[in-house]
């Protein structure tokens, strides 16, 4: 018979890196933790962990088993939470990761409203410019922006947005540029780029005549940063030209702090996606929040 508590103990030991740390996390004694790991290994007939005086390390078999245990425990928790929600509303923990910029502007207000509707549900929001792994990070939902390439998870399109090349008036004055510069001239400017993009300065651009052409900057970026917020700050300081989401820079464009270059050209529209683990049982809290966020974005727009 499958002993779910032993799986929980094993996962806790791996994540804590020691029997003592797992015992503290679970509120058990070190002896109880050690006994259950021993029994689990005996039942499986393999060594899951290697012990040293200070820490434990995961064997190859243990590493594979750990990831399967994570998924199994998540699914089990989801089933229990869905049954409870039939009677008492959503409960448990909803873990979400977003970029800092879009998170603060859109997702956090939506989460606050969602939380008000489901007071028994605990919410944890993680801001990160990196594409954190959903399984390793135990995230229920990740909100990703741009061109979606990860096919290992379920994904739902929430919205689309424009990306705009922008620069400060001070930069344009210093380097002799203007909002009406050509696409060829734009390839010569000092570019600011995001470190997460494999080819940050290669884009298919739609001209005013409706022709799709490949835009490629002639020089490497003068500055690279790991967040859109940093690139926006560099652009405001006159450091160069940045290609940024319209929803992030539109206020600066409206006030004249930044200038939208080549406004008659269109860079590829980007998507906003809700990603969630590819499991047989999708938790009700995940389905409901994604629908809630899509409705929130639609009406906010």
Automatic annotation (TrEMBL):
Residues 2-59 form the HTH lysR-type domain. InterPro entries: LysR-type_TF_proteobact-type, LysR_HTH_N, LysR_subst-bd, WH-like_DNA-bd_sf, WH_DNA-bd_sf. It comes from the Bacteria. One of its GO terms (biological process) is DNA-templated transcription. Gene3D superfamilies: 3.40.190.290, Winged helix-like DNA-binding domain superfamily/Winged helix DNA-binding domain. Pfam families: HTH_1, LysR_substrate. PROSITE patterns: HTH_LYSR (PS50931). Keywords: DNA-binding, Transcription, Transcription regulation. One of its GO terms (molecular function) is sequence-specific DNA binding. SUPFAM superfamilies: Periplasmic binding protein-like II, Winged helix' DNA-binding domain. Belongs to the LysR transcriptional regulatory family. This is Putative LysR family transcriptional regulator YafC. The gene is yafC.
